[in-house]
Design a protein that fits this description.
Blueprint lengths: L11 H8 L9 H37 L1 H10 L3
């Protein structure tokens, strides 16, 4: 595993969480921090996927309702 040293400003609650890592089943504050970052990464990735899905649904709805698009589609794909 790669090591990175960095300075962060954190709240008292966050400091307490890191200092009490063993209460949450973690062997070290590093392990807790890594776990939290992985959770955050997963949440961000899922949120981004959902934004793309939502955007695609909106575009599909717009194109479905657009007369010009419907005319073009039917010319290219006659039923």
């Amino acid at each position: 595993m790669m090591q990175l040293s960095a300075n962060f400003t954190v709240s008292k609650e966050e400091i307490n969480l890191l200092q009490n890592h063993s209460l949450f089943g973690f062997e070290s504050a590093d392990e807790l921090f890594s776990y939290a970052l992985n959770l955050l990464r997963t949440e961000i990735e899922e949120r981004k996927k959902q934004q793309i899905i939502d955007s695609a649904a909106l575009y599909a709805e717009l194109y479905q309702e657009d007369e010009e698009t419907n005319e073009w589609f039917h010319l290219k794909n006659p039923i």
